[in-house]
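#struct-pred
JK: can someone run the complex with fe (ii) ion? inputs below
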Amino acid sequence: MKNLTTTDHEKVCLSLVAALCARDVYTRSHCDRVCALAMDLGNALDLRAYDLETLRIASQLHDIGKIEVRDEVLLKPGPLTPEEWEEIKAHSIHGERIINESFLPNRTGVAAIVRHHHEALDGSGYPDGLSGGEISQSCRILSIVDKYDAMTSSRVYRHALSHGEAMAILQKETRTKLDPRIFAAFSTLISSSQPCFAEP
Ligand SMILES: [Fe+2]
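RT: done, structure tokens with the ligand placed:
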């Protein structure tokens, strides 16, 4: 097989994004916002160019595994049963497999971030219960911006929290699940670069 060009790689990425959009428009727009925030935060933390590019693709595709979650679970307006919650949680493993089966050039790195974007520093995350230093900086970045965007967006099953409410929850989670240094950088970034977020 001939080597794929950068344009080809971008097409692979965009095709996966288009598939996700066809399945769930919210997830697509969520991934777009998360990607933009992850890039700003990665730049603020001086990530190397290769790591930044890997994070860009991973953040755009982090929920691609939701393609395999049934509509009645993915779009359910009410609370999930324990079995349904397990089905949702499996999206990170599905996503890892989809990325590994793609032709993306840095798919190993992207797939690892996608698999671990719901891990927590205290080991309470999923799917592997990684803790502390086992969780990469890219996953820590993605975890914070993913949670922030999820909390400040409206879904069928809940209203959006205000910026202040979301930041207070994230701040609290720096004692257990989130990286305090990266959260501090995120807090500085979002309050300085997004004037509309200045209100509580
Ligand atoms: Fe996710």
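RT: quick notes.
The pocket of fe (ii) ion is lined by residues 62-63, 91, 117-118 (CB under 6 Å).
The longest helix spans residues 25-44.
JK: thanks, will look after standup
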